[in-house]
Each structure stands twice: as C-alpha cells, then as structure tokens.
Amino acid sequence: MATDRPTIRLNKETLAFVSTRPEGQNVSSYINECIQSARMAADKLGVDISKLPAIAERYAEIVKRHGVVMTEREAFILVSCLMGSFVEPLLIRHLADEVEDSEFADEEAGQTLIAKLRSASFADLVATVEKLRGDS
Fold first, then answer.
1. How far apart are CA 116 and CA 35, in angstroms?
2. Taking CA 25 as the corner, what is the angle to CA 21 and CA 30, rounded to the nearest 5 degrees?
3. Which positions ≥6 away from 43 have C-beta within 8 Å?
4. Are 6 and 35 in contact (CB under 8 A)?
C-alpha cells in the first residue's frame, strides 16, 4: 500500500536535526513542519518531492567531494564575513565580493581567499559554505 508519508531513518544526523527544534515543541510536529516547508520549497522550484531523497544524496556527495581549501585564518575571515547573513545562492556566487568589501580585504590572507573564491566553481563555493556551517 503506497503512502504519502515520508520514511525517516533515525541516525546521528536525524537526532542532531531534531535537537534543533524549539524548546517544548513536539518532535513529530517539528518534523512535519520541516517536511511541509520542504514540500512548499519543492513546489516553488517545480521539483517532484519524491526526488528529494536522491537530490539530498547527490548534494551530500557534492559537499563531501568539493570545497575551497583554506587556512585557518581564511576560514575565520569567511565565517566573519558571513556572520548574521542569510546565505542564499546569490550571496554564494558573490562570496569573493563579500570578502573584498570587508575589513579583511587588505590582509594577505584576505587577498589569497578572494583569489581562491573567484577561481572556485559554484559547487566548491556551496560545499565550502556547508562545511563552515557544519563547524559552527
């Protein structure tokens, strides 16, 4: 019997995700809200919701295999430049500009980072942002 309800595997990542719910909110209602948000986003983008697990797997593989190699100082600079920002695709495309417009632009590490970001592919930039978010 086919069902429209998603299957959620309980693993370390799922439990970490669930722990981000607002205090006092029921786990089931939190997951349902997240699923509803994903459905709305998928509809907006014209994506078949049944394809989301495969898309998520491919995305995770991109994040694992790509990224800008940075020094600790360069990573600090990028995190500082993005602090408080909603990192949408347009901002990701212009990460180098964000660093260039920052107080770090005159540093050697800032200049090196700008060059790395300008030469990176979009997949590298996305993976870099995701990896930095995972470290915070």
1. 36
2. 60
3. 49
4. yes
Contact 39, 93 (CB under 8 A): no
Instruction: Identify the residue whose tokens are 């800008």.
Output: 68
3-state DSSP call for residue 59? helix
Q: What is the dihedral sign for C-alpha 78, 92, 15, 9?
A: negative
The 10s digit of each residue's pLDDT in 4-30 is 554 445 455 555 555 566 666 666 676
Residue with tokens 């901002």: 91
**pTM tops 0.70:** no
Query: What's the rounded Cα separation, in Å, for the pair 56 and 68?
Result: 21
